[in-house]
Amino acid sequence: MRTIRSTKCPWAFVGVAGVLVMLVTAVHVFMVPILPSSLDYFGARRSVRRPRNVLPGVGVVDSRLQGQFPSDSHGVVAFRGAPWKAEIGRWLAGCNAGSSAVNITEFLGAKRCEQDCNGHGVCNHELGECRCFHGYAGKRCEEVQKLECNFPSSQEWPVGRWIVSICPAHCDTTRAMCFCGPGTKYPDRPVAEACGFKTISPAKPDDPKLTDWKTPDPDVFTKNMSKPGWCNVDPEDAYSSKVKFKEECDCKYDGLWGRFCETPVECSCINQCSEHGHCRGGFCQCDRGYFGIDCSIPSMYSLAYDWPSWLQPSMDLPDLKNISSSPIDVKAVAKKKRPLIYVYDLPAEFDSHLLEGRHFKFECVNRIYDDKNRTIWTEQLYGAQIALYESILSSPHRTLNGDEADYFYVPVLDSCLITRSDDAPHLQMPRDLHIRSYHTLEYYRMAYDHIAQKYPYWNRTSGRDHIWFFSWDEGACYAPKEIWNSMMLVHWGNTNTKHKNSTTAYWADNWNDIPFDRRGDHPCFDPRKDLVLPAWKQPNPAAIWLKLWARPRNSRTTLFYFNGNLGSAYKDGRPEDTYSMGIRQKLAAEFGSTPDKQGKLGRQHTTNVTVTYLRTEKYYEELASSVFCGVLPGDGWSGRMEDSMLQGCIPVIIQVIQHHLLHFMYLRIM
Q1: Of which family is this protein a member (predicted)?
Q2: What is the structure's pLDDT at 107?
């Protein structure tokens, strides 16, 4: 047995972890009725140790820490230079003080995988199991899967009925992705979606072109420069207008850049493989001895090549390159910070495959890379899931020792699964009723089955110290009943008793028809154990420089502002009466400041109230020019809460609307 002791800590990650802890705590303060009850839900158990930086309820915290963190003459407690209400400031200060570094024994995996996964996967040295690349399966990743791009063809549908992966060219059946293929000048150029099919000219001048999904377009393979081609079009000739090209074709797949996909670039992977591997389309192919979705987990075998930055030896080791086939148990003592979080390394179908096989580079991820490999941040609405996942993986609060962990994070990427649920035939499940919510429930249930069978940690507490993230519109409403004991991270703390049924207007997300034996009878949110987190917002340095949130009251000339889809009465509006539970439609009928399809304004419209559907490039400027900003549901939670707060506009949250509320708003406005 070798014990390795480390006194170094990845200080670069400490700030990230501090910001993460503060973010979750601050959101919990403002959005959950009882400040620390979610954390206390776990800490109150007799059989589980209370995390060292987790405090009891607000009253207990206040009395216990009052002497240590007294309030000033204004009744506030300062934390990191900002004034807070006394009990909140004490909670934050106490939480921060309790997260001191501790020495934790980390176990480095030593189990081998058969035939090293045949070069088609990464070995999980903790379990001794292969994590196979997209399109490969089997205990040794020896099976090459055939993942078709198309549904079966028919007389009506020669290529099969429409699906995102539909392909009239060469289908890469390891990923169900469509390319020009052999015999063309650019065989690796994508032929994605409408690119490979005939277009239908619009009936009216302003109408868009339509795609004839039943008729493949042979011109994409043409070498005739007078026809709009694609697979044989030379980029230089096209840029200089010497040849025509089909405008419906573009570079949708990740890892390629340029109008004609002529420049290979960095793909998007979790933590970009932590400098211990390379990103292959979304799946980290780890260096020898490392594993995990981001190659951040060292094993005994990685020590023969290099040491991870947070683990430095204080003694010499034998030449591990020449060790026998019998594994050596290796321990390392590293400095960590409580609460300690163990992150499950799930099979690839729950995360890496969803990233590697995506058909649109902006799906699922927070960033892509341009032709100079510079980061381009995306506007992915559900990006908080990836951001939190990456932060936890690189945090000093993370532990590889489940026996030391205070919490267990189960990283199912529902945001990616839902956006990709109609991407390819292999992603459709036979029992999902063709409903994305049921499809997602089944994935979470399979993840539960995996961790309950492969690891000892779930059964110790029936999952009460486990954490799951449900980022989609209605949160954890369709969580499988088996995992409801756990903490749910969501964007909507939906506790309204009216919402015992699905509130979305989009049929594929409606969970009312999910069988009772799969979902159970749990609510969507339990404030005793669950947390509401803010949504992802694209990093914007210009917003820091402009400081729109600090704009004074006399510069805010709009009393109330809302910009968004207002329903069927307006151009391009959602047709369903149940969209936004009818709230946006009623607000527009009273205060609409833009004419509807009939040319009418809202009944109570006034000059200092803006309720419009018109998109504007000055959206944030208009928010910053307003006193109150509407936060109204769409098919679920709304990202306008964050938009409002970031621009210093007071958010007005409306989740149910009655006539008397509209009358009250009218009186206030007048």
Answers
A1: Belongs to the glycosyltransferase 47 family.
A2: 83
Question: HSE of 336 in the Cβ direction (CA atoms, 13 Å)?
Answer: 28
| Nearest alpha-carbon partner for 381 in 252, 518, 535, 181 | 535
DSSP strands (E only) in 185-297: 197-200, 210-216, 256-257, 263-264, 277-280, 283-286
pLDDT > 80? residue 13: no
Residues 6+ away with beta carbon under 8 Å from 366: 377, 378, 380, 383, 386, 387, 536
Task: List, as one string, the DSSP characters of 164-214.
Answer: TT--SSEEETTTTEEE--TTSS-TTSB--GGGGEEEE--SSTTSPPEEEEE
Q: What's the farthest any 2 CA atoms get from each other in the chain?
A: 83
Closest C-alpha among 537, 544, 543, 542 to residue 377: 537
pLDDT tens-digit readout, 432-465: 677 889 999 999 999 999 999 999 999 999 999 9
**Alpha helices, H only, 420-564:** 436-454, 457-461, 516-519, 541-546
DSSP 327: P
What's the rounded Cα separation, in Å, for the pair 387 and 389?
5
Its pTM surpasses 0.85? no
Q: Which long-range CB contacts under 8 A does 220-224 form with residues at least 24 apart?
A: 220/169, 220/180, 220/191, 220/195, 220/196, 220/246, 220/249, 221/169, 221/180, 221/184
